[in-house]
Design brief:
mainly alpha, 20 helices, globular, 78% helix, 474 residues
Length: 474
Amino acid sequence: MRSPARAVAQTDGLPLPRRYAAILALCCGTALVIIDGGVANVALPTIARDLGVGSSAVVSIVTVYQLMLVMLMLPFAALGERIGLKRTYQLGQAIFTVATLLCFFAKSLPFLLVVRAGQAIGAAATLGVGSALIRQTYPAKQLGRGLGVNSVIVASSAAAAPTVGGLILGVAPWPWVFASAVPFAIASLLFGRALPDPAPRDRHFDVVGAVQCAAMFGLVIGGAESAVHGDSPVVSAAIVLIGALVGVYYVRRERGTANPILPVDLLGQPVIALSVIGAYTAFIASMTLLLSTPFRLTHDYGFSPAQVGAAIAPWPLTNMIVAPLAGWLSDRIPAGLLGGIGMIVSVVALTLLALLPADAAYVDIAWRMALCGSGFGIFLPPNARLIIGSAPQVRAAAAGGLVSTVRLLGQTTGATLVALLLAIGVGAGRVPALVAAGLAVVAGLCSIARLRPSLRNPDRAESEAAQITMRTAR
């Protein structure tokens, strides 16, 4: 007998007021993952001193978290389709909470890295099915609004993480920094009773495919990271090559699978493929600018750390305002048009940032950062809505995992790109902003290309959200 939770019609969202409780659970779940991913940065010097390790070694605390997320996001999305979205989501939060408690027993870097990997496993399970649960929670005509709210949580959590970490370090030992996200996990678990619980699909979980998926991302990204930070370019190139070969074999294998972990079936749709390429380049562009700007402001303009933070703050603050508005508009205006407008704004802002005068004051930088943040805020929620909304209902988890994986891949690639630019001596000037502007142009072209009528194939299974978007756009 089906539970009352599963008896709810999932095609038109949850009824009120249950929907509000589910939204709160999803917001807390997203916040815990984002905060935990960014709060560790502030504590790295303290951890290195307490554990007696070098600065270069302690950075692996951040790297292992990001790498595990990228490797496991899509496998957990597939597992969610098999055992249930709600169960996977809450299982991930439980794993995350237990792993966080183990941080208090960390007396060495290797043990802390294992614990950090455990946190990433829980976070990957949460993020892997999060977007699919958003689609089940909101009515189809409000899907863009829901993704806009999620974007606000991501931006605000990322902006708050360094401040939270600094405040905790001022009054408590460093393990409490990792514990800062636990209240969000507890709140999400408590309110999680209201989450939608669609019946899992009766399908086999491809363990071999999951391992190959993780190996592909892990080898390629890990090899690229080692090429920048390591001492052996030949070994790094070999690692990347092995990962690429695994990827070629894996993609061929997935094409013959009915329910692939790597959603090659969704990527075969031109609209989704263009959206993925656009999102990937947009995330590379944003991370390239955000990571390189502190070096430029410090070296060229003599800003203190506090002034650097204040100069960058208008980006996430503006994004928090613009993202939900863009999500709401994406329920009425084609995502291709909104994305094109957003990237035009971003290209202008990035170019202006690259051409900052030598005597630029705080105001000169702040309004350019705000303009840039608004451009990406206009682009990203409608883009995510189109990917998730264009997938068949039964592949919602795969589409959601794809969105989260592309975001992390773009951010990781951007970080690696900045490290490379710094290594060759051009990462602290205007070059990163110009590179980001070029990437934003690519993202904008991908977005505008989706407006072509020939890309809309009526024979493909589309969700109600996509159909409503097309009707309201006419």
